[in-house]
């Protein structure tokens, strides 16, 4: 078995990855070595990571401190009007260049030894470079151009700023594909977003459990009773799943079905969707057509860690950031649009109750990843079963499927080099077929 | 009874209502037409209006309680609110603005006692007949981070 390059310490236990996309081994949520490898191969690898909104960089000098995986990153708008991004790491001794999350600056000066950077991340000054009274100072051969934080490639898609540290991947349009682009355009195209609030949720679980949860259209109407009771989202509504070719990006959407009749499937499934629960103030559900169509729910993910959400008139972006094998930061940014009327803004405020750390239809997702993380302790060699809707990762008109979750694992296995290797001797054959895997690094 | 005493008294019962129940009484600490939201110091100082909980009627607060009791799924947990003394900032007839610092500890399941939130209540009270009702409560949490989820109100 190939060993991972870079940060690997010691020998990893033998691993087997089931060949089928419908099985996910639990060690992938637990293993420290896998976690370290994800930083290199996924977040620093050939993927586009969401960084911030263009709207958060409205004026020249505005900056955001954000992350690619664990890596701190600064995103700026320079006086030339362009957006730049570079590591938030001083080239001298590694301290953070900026500590505020958001702000405005003409330049950045590291607090440690006052090395100074312009808004494009170029080192422009070194304190006492010439020494003092002819003594000390930097060597004559020191060249500021040779020192600076790594710069990111940037792409802006309908006001969403993405970045990458890799040159080894296609443009964002090709990365996303036409279907995903269309669905981003549907929500954000031609409109200027306004940030209504930012919240951070700390999840006691592996980041991939949240990435799975976002792509899991099967759970939505079962775990989240609020949805089903008020007809916001039933699996029998008109809708579907889009999974892109890589598998990593997805869209789940549903629309008002104007021909729908009361469906009996729900009452037969022994799920808590038929309660007599009624709202004292139903104004929370009185929304408007978000973009002039009948779609009331659209959850869109971009591999590895981005989500764009429209739930009724609650529009938000979510950024998933790994912090440890069982620790994840989830950043929510609630959005309105410059074109909103006062009434529409009020609807967005009311419907902000649906989402976020206290959301009527998202609160459960904060806990469920932790339930899995705790549930799988001691079961590293067991695996999850994702057979709902078959074994492939394809688009479908049914949302009673785990296709987009399987799609995530398809993309993940490709990123990580987890390949089912038929040539290698088969690992202990259990009751289910498993095969030896190799981990092939990327160049 | 002066306004500060009336507010301190109301808040003692408010904390007890959330921590020890019955939670159904929590909306009764507010006027019918009210504003309640939980936000962060960062959002508050930037004037960003959204909340993790946002309500502009007592009915919406009732719906919070019934959703927690009937709809939402979460691991059972309890709070312990520790409130500082209210600082009365302005008084105009029965309309009183005050701020009160809080610490809320949370115990989830059989787990330890965690510091869940610290912050301040930025309040506008309506005082009548010695009774203080909340017209507006903005719960401004010092940290922008919320651990796992926020179910019970602050």
TrEMBL record, chain B:
Q: Which SUPFAM superfamilies match?
A: NTF2-like
UniProt cross-references to Pfam families, sorted A to Z: SnoaL_4 (PF13577)
Q: Which domain of life is it from?
A: Bacteria
Query: What keywords is this UniProt entry annotated with?
Result: Dioxygenase, Oxidoreductase
Record-annotated SnoaL-like domain positions: 4-135
GO molecular function annotations of the record: dioxygenase activity
Q: Which family does it belong to?
A: Belongs to the bacterial ring-hydroxylating dioxygenase beta subunit family.
Under which name does UniProt file this protein? Aromatic-ring-hydroxylating dioxygenase beta subunit
């Amino acid at each position: 078995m190939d060993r991972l390059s870079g940060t690997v310490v010691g020998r990893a236990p033998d691993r087997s990855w089931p060949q089928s996309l419908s099985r996910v081994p639990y060690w992938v949520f637990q293993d420290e070595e896998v976690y370290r490898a994800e930083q290199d191969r996924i977040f620093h690898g050939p993927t586009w990571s969401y960084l911030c909104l263009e709207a958060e960089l409205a004026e020249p000098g505005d900056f955001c401190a954000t992350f690619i995986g664990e890596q701190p990153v600064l995103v700026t708008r320079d006086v030339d009007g362009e957006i730049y991004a570079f590591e938030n790491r001083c080239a001298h001794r590694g301290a953070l260049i900026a500590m505020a999350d958001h702000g405005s600056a003409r330049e950045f000066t590291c607090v440690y030894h006052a090395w100074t950077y312009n808004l494009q991340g170029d080192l422009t000054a070194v304190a006492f470079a010439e020494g003092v009274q002819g003594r000390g100072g930097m060597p004559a051969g020191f060249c500021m151009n040779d020192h600076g934080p790594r710069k990111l490639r940037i792409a802006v898609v309908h006001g969403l700023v993405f970045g990458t540290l890799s040159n080894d991947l296609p443009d964002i349009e090709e990365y996303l594909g036409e279907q995903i682009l269309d669905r981003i355009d549907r929500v954000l195209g031609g409109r200027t977003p306004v940030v209504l609030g930012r919240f951070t949720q700390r999840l006691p679980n592996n980041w991939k459990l949240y990435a799975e949860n976002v792509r899991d259209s099967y759970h939505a109407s079962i775990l989240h009773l609020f949805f089903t009771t008020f007809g916001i989202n039933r699996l029998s509504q008109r809708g579907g799943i889009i999974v892109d070719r890589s598998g990593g990006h997805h869209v789940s959407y549903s629309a008002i079905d104007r021909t729908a009749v009361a469906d009996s499937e729900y009452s037969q499934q022994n799920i808590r969707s038929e309660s007599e629960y009624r709202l004292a103030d139903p104004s929370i559900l009185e929304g408007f057509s978000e973009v002039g169509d009948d779609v009331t729910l659209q959850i869109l993910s971009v591999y590895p860690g981005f989500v764009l959400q429209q739930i009724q008139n609650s529009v938000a972006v979510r950024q998933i950031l790994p912090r440890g094998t069982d620790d994840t930061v989830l950043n929510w940014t609630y959005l309105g649009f410059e074109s909103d009327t006062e009434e529409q803004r009020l609807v967005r405020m009311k419907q902000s109750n649906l989402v976020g750390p206290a959301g009527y239809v998202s609160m459960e997702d904060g806990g469920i990843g932790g339930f899995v993380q705790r549930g799988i302790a001691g079961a590293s060699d067991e695996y999850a079963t994702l057979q709902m809707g078959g074994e492939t990762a394809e688009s479908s008109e049914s949302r009673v499927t785990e296709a987009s979750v399987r799609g995530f694992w398809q993309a993940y296995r490709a990123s990580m080099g987890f390949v089912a290797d038929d040539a290698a001797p088969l690992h202990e054959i259990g009751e289910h077929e498993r095969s030896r895997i190799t981990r092939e690094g990327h160049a | 009874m002066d306004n500060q005493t009336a507010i301190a008294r109301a808040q003692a019962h408010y904390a007890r209502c959330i921590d020890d129940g019955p939670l159904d009484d929590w909306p009764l600490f507010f006027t019918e037409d009210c504003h309640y939201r939980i936000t962060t110091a960062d959002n508050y100082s930037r004037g960003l209006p959204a909340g993790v909980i946002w309500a502009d009627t007592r009915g919406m607060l009732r719906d919070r309680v019934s959703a927690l009791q009937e709809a939402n799924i979460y691991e059972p947990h309890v709070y312990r609110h520790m409130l500082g003394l209210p600082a009365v900032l302005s008084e105009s007839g029965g309309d009183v603005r005050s701020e009160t610092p809080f610490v809320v500890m949370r115990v989830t399941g059989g787990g330890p006692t965690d510091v869940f939130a610290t912050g301040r209540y930025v309040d506008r009270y309506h005082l009548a007949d010695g009774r203080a009702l909340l017209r507006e409560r903005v719960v401004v949490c010092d940290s922008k981070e919320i651990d796992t989820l926020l179910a019970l109100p602050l």
